[in-house]
Specification:
It comes from Paludisphaera borealis. GO terms for molecular function: ATP binding; ATP hydrolysis activity; transmembrane transporter activity. By secondary structure, the chain is an alpha+beta fold. It has 11 helices and 19 strands. The protein is elongated. The relative contact order is 0.13.
Length: 388
């Protein structure tokens, strides 16, 4: 049996793995409005890397610098201080023509739709196809396809005055996406949309990120509906990036934790704090994950796949979604109680000894539950040593 496990997870501050296709790299970015006595600095020493195909949310209070950073990345403002590279373009030293060239590959979505009032929906979208021209037939087909995907197939010949606010916003989104841009920069793209339309837009953005083009999507938003579609959340306060954390992975981990018997009843907030400390590992069929009798330093939660558990050399039970195994021997004063072998390909959510102790210190509910397990004060006590 092999013991090859590969780590694919990251927690807290995110640094991209070596070899990642980085399409946004900001280092030490500062920005100020005005000059002299009226000069007001709004960005302070910001560092950020985003890879191809990521969907990243930027959040923070009003005036925190989100929109300013977004417009710098989109080459709508000149970089003042620090370095900024976007889609292979060095914006630190780019002139006006360099900025224009970059913008051809970016789809912009703003709160104000800025449609031409004298043009129909399809004509407004067709305006953008001039940046990536083709035959008239091909450009019309692209515009119709995008409008249809956004639920406006029956409104393509309507003027803006004949459309609702949400429909106008969707026309503007179609205009931003019609050229299949390498990057989408959006400022509150779903603010004026109802729940159904928002879901349609978010699904489309996620599909673009996951599809062949692997479009990178950066959204400034306060819309909580976006979180399930995002890979990361970047939070800004006072002109600084203060947190940069994974989301889609964290959601998967939280759901698995919620299905774990020994953690039943813990709040979403507590499960989220635990998830923040966990990493993701994958294993292949036949991999031995833990071995009975050894000193253990990690807990595992099954995310996907199935494993077999053996005790005293005999088959014990199956381990599947939401089930836990492993041991922190130094804390529980016991060795690993079972050998666990992957039956299929698996995704495992892992809590190391150090991160287990950090999670205990950070969340009193988690600590109380663990102490209860140790003391045998509830029905989970029998499985406490392994959270099994």
């Amino acid at each position: 049996m092999s013991t090859a496990l590969s780590s694919t997870g990251m927690h807290r501050a995110v640094s991209l793995p070596s070899g990642a296709d980085v399409v946004i790299r900001a280092q030490g970015v500062n920005y100020a409005y005005g000059s002299g006595e009226t000069r007001t600095q709004v960005l302070f020493d910001n560092n950020l890397e985003i890879s191809r195909g990521e969907v990243v949310i930027m959040t923070g209070p009003s005036g925190s610098g989100k929109s300013t950073l977004l417009t710098l990345i989109g080459a709508l403002r000149r970089t003042q201080d620090g370095s900024l590279d976007v889609l292979g373009h060095d914006l630190t030293h780019a002139d006006g023509s360099g900025q224009v060239e970059l913008r051809k590959h970016i789809g912009f979505i703003f709160q104000q739709h800025n449609l031409f009032s004298s043009l129909t929906a399809i004509e407004n979208v067709r305006m953008a196809t001039a940046l990536m021209p083709g035959s008239v037939k091909e450009m019309n087909a692209r515009a119709i396809e995008m409008l249809t995907k956004l639920g406006l197939g029956d409104r393509i010949h309507h003027l803006p005055a004949e459309l609702s606010g949400g429909q106008k916003q969707r026309v503007a989104i179609a205009r931003a996406l019609v050229n299949r841009p390498l990057m989408v920069l959006a400022d509150e793209p779903t603010a004026s949309l109802d729940a159904e339309s928002s879901q349609t837009v978010l699904d489309l953005l996620r599909d673009l990120a996951d599809g062949q083009d692997k479009t990178t999507v950066l959204l400034v938003t306060h819309d909580q509906r976006v979180i399930d579609k995002a890979d990361r959340i970047v939070n800004m306060v006072g002109g600084r990036i203060v947190t940069n954390s994974l989301t889609r992975v964290a959601v998967r981990i939280c759901r698995a934790l919620a299905a774990t018997e020994s953690l039943n009843g813990l709040s979403e907030a507590t499960l989220s704090r635990i998830a923040n400390y966990m990493t993701v590992e994958t294993c292949e069929p036949g991999d031995t994950i833990v071995t009975e009798g050894e000193e253990g330093d990690r807990f595992y939660i099954v995310g996907t796949g199935v494993a077999d558990s053996y005790r005293d050399g005999n088959y014990d039970e199956e381990k599947c979604y939401g089930e836990a195994f492993g041991m922190i021997s130094s804390y529980f004063k016991r060795t690993v109680p079972t050998t666990v072998v992957a039956r299929t390909e698996m995704e495992l959510y892992v809590l190391s000894k150090d991160d287990f102790l950090h999670a205990l210190a950070e969340d009193q509910s988690f600590e109380t539950r663990i102490r209860g397990l140790l003391a045998g004060s509830n029905t989970a006590a029998a499985t406490a040593p392994t959270i099994d």
